[in-house]
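Bug report (template v2)

What were you trying to do?
Predict the complex of my protein with s-citryldethia Coenzyme A.

What happened?
Run completed; filing so the output is reviewed.

Input:
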Amino acid sequence: MSSKNAFLTFEGSDKAIPLNIVSGSDGPDTLDITSLYKEAGVFTYDPGFLSTASCNSSITYIDGDKGILRYRGYPIEQLAEQSSFLEVAHLLMYGELPKKTELNDFSNIITRHTMINESLLRFFEGFHYDAHPMAMVIGVVGSLSAFYHDSTDIKNPRHREISAHRLISKMPTIAAAAYKHNRGEPVIYPRNDLSYAGNLLHMMMATPCEDYVIDPLAEKALDLLFILHADHEQNASTSTMRLAGSSGSNPFACVAAGASSLWGPAHGGANEAVLNMLKEIGHASNVEKYIAKAKDKDDPFRLMGFGHRVYKNYDPRAKIIREVCYEVLNKLADANNPLFELAMNLEEQAVSDDYFVEKNLYPNVDYYSGIIYRALGIPESMFTVMFAIARTAGWVSHWMEMLDDPRHRIGRPRQLYQGAAIRDYVPLEQRA
Ligand code: SDX
């Protein structure tokens, strides 16, 4: 990383504090302020981290103005077209596309860790049948640490790798078990002869009474959605994973924390919120009214699936998913899917509206993904679970990258204090 200096001066002082400008391999330079408090006795103030780099990373690069997304330097468009989710998971974890034998070994490892301890299956009995599957997944994935005392030494790289494999392997099994609990159906065990996406579809859709024939198009569409959702730089849930991991917490607890952050409707919960929004809008004749609501400062309504902290252009993933929507709906479900028609109508009207143009609000990854999930027979309540399955690959990769760096420290931000000045305790009987 090359570096040059910036100088910070304060009115009334002729002291110029040198701050290193550190350049990465791509994207904006960073101002290294690690010595700022010591040198100047001030903090920086950046709630929401709009201008703050929380770490250095080599995993994913995003250029929000140009709509660029690359995993380890590979453009998402090429990975979507030519790769598979397990190959992308290997790329994110290890930094390189695997050779044939490496991919085969990695796929075998992931496949052979898909079962969960039978005791974990009893955890689901404690939930009401209508518990939200994200609540069940978060509870159960956090409990995995109770079963792996043999590999929770996070200082041991091999333990970190085994835990990362287990998490990528078991998330679909836990997700499918949550789905089956919602349906009151028995759990379907993973099968080692199926692909990662095919196994999940089978665990969700098969029943003991009849087998489930996996549609290759559904399998390919789900695998593609997993590629597109696998990682996205320092988003809220990945930052949560890193912060939780920085204190030395075990990776299972960290993924539960990351998934908890992802669940929010401003983040990964948006895909479920988009479908609920489209159902609320109901018909193209209502689109104008809802766009007006989204623009009204006094109305809390927002166009879910629109806008992004980083992308001030089309989210490249949204473009790819929209194309897959056409293919899946034409072949798998009803070609004139009313919700898809409505989504395209809403997109067309919103992206040509001055309010959205001025604020650079375009469809994001969550806008169309739910329409495909529904076409695959996956209910809204499972949409964020799908997101969490895919993002586990990114979460564990960032967690490993952080812990591989011997310089890493516990994350502990400071604050701008605006509370009461010092004051003495007033005994109860003296309070008015
Ligand atoms: C994901 O960070 C990531 O990388 C996330 C993600 C990933 O892969 O990990 O890409 C996945 O989370 C995608 C985002 C999914 N969320 C939604 O679709 C929810 C709807 N969108 C928003 O709530 C919002 O756009 C955010 C949360 C995505 C971004 O919020 P910011 O960056 O804090 O922007 P903001 O809320 O300050 O909005 C800027 C302006 C505001 O108007 P002003 O106060 O400047 O007048 O744009 C307006 C907002 O009111 N605005 C919207 C809007 N999103 C922003 N107005 C209407 N509809 C919207 N969707």
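What did the reviewer find?
The two ends are 61 Å apart (CA to CA). The chain has 18 helices and six strands.
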